[in-house]
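Two quick folds needed for the group meeting slides. Do the first one here.
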Amino acid sequence: MRLNSFLLIVTIIFSLIASSCQKELNPVISPNIIYQSNFKQNQDGWQADIADYSTQQQDIQFESGWSALPSPLDSTRKSIRVSSMNRSDDLFMFLKKKISGLQVNAEYKLVFDIELASAYATNSIGIGGSPGGSVYLKAGATATEPTKVLKNGFYSINLDKGNQSTGGKDATLLGNIGAGDDVTSYKLITRSNADAPLTVRTNAQGELWLVVGTDSGYEGLTTLYYSTIKVTAK
């Protein structure tokens, strides 16, 4: 074999190896996915807040933060933990995050795929409603930042999310947080609106604010761990 032919073969082999390694290091992500995180490093910019309560209501015990998944789940996995006591029979506990780089003033049809840890049985009974079956998970998006607004001593949110078991123009109902019948410990559950994408429109900067939250009819303490949030444009 001539030296030039040998060098050519060696070059081809190394090129194939390098290409294979590059594919493993940089897996192909669907261009339709506009956001995805499993919170491995941090909260990834998500901010937590609550709305739909009176200034006179005390002891709401609202907390949020970056956390490991609870026992008996895999504690090496991370999540965003949110917790609050519903004193209004209608508390909205939510996360929000701005994303950019989208088309300007463009219409998108969004599908939300949410994984979270819940310890609440679907068939459970509680004050005002079921801790699992009466706490409704919603997801949505708006062109302006979702913020809570104080009016006449009551905090509401400046988006149309509907009320409890119904969705609204800016947020769709994904289901409830029930983890199954007779559940007594945390389980991972998934919820999606794949059958009914939500239509939204970006602002003049090509931005959207994503919102994920629970609209509660259960008058008690709810503690959840959001482990994966994925948003796909259809």
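Then this one, please, same format:
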Amino acid sequence: MSLARGRRRDTRIDYWPGFVDAMATLLLVIIFLLSVFMLSQFFLTREITGKDTALSRLNSQIAELTELLALERAGKREVEDQVGTLRSSLTAVEGEKGRLQGLIEQQAGAASSSSGAVETLGTQLDDEKRVSARALAQVELLNQQISALRRQIAALETALDASESRDRESQTKISDLGKRLNVALAQRVQELQRYRSDFFGRLREILGSRSDIRVVGDRFVFQSEVLFPVGQETINDAGRADLDKLALAILELERQIPTEVAWTLRVDGHTDVRPTSSTGRFRSNWELSAARAISVVRYLIDRGVSPKRLVAAGFGEYQPLEEGTSEEIYAKNRRIEIRMTDR
């Protein structure tokens, strides 16, 4: 039994040496980390110290610059004060110069007793003369510039006068041309009125005295029933006969009027106020009046009248000769008008 116990004791494992080695290793690591930390702190301290030193130098330089700026400002104020003082002294010297110059002129005989003062004043007077000479040179330069400007202004005024003169001449010519044009137009109008009177007189002779064909002012008026069936634009047989006579009168008029006289015959269609049938060809009186005017123009062209001398226009019910709702008024308002106009 004792032998067995001894064997059991001998078989136990001894952990202590390993633990000591581990602790030693850990201690070495900690010492290494502490060394690294201390070195880092050392270098960081040195860097911070260097930056503090540089910052201190910069602060010193800034302070020096601030002092220099203050000195510069103080020097500038002193110089400005000196300039002001010199200006005041110059004014005083100029006044004194004038006073002394008067005394010199009054006491020319006593100049020997005050030669020193006179020499000083002479020097000051020479300085003033040099200043005056420079001022006079500047004044002369300004006078030359002013003279040049005056010459430029005079040249511009001359050009403006010439332009205004040309404008006045142009206005005079335009006025003369306008007067001559008005006279020519008046002559043309009178000439056209004469031809219109002759034309209407000739139509009266051709068509005779009829109640359904008449002259109203400067228009020759056909009642619609003379030329067209009710509500239609086709010319009836009686209307063709009347339009044949009208075409002969227009052709005779074309031969009489000189070619340089501008004129046209405007054929105007008119209706009464009653609406067109909803089942008819025309949706409005306007369309009916225009179609009738075009029918007359086409018929006259077929009879040899120049298309350049004809114009068709439709007015519907919007230009009645008389207002009212009676059949007689309706009949008057339904018409074809022929008017001679200038183009």
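Slide caption for protein two: The chain is about 70% helix and 10% strand.
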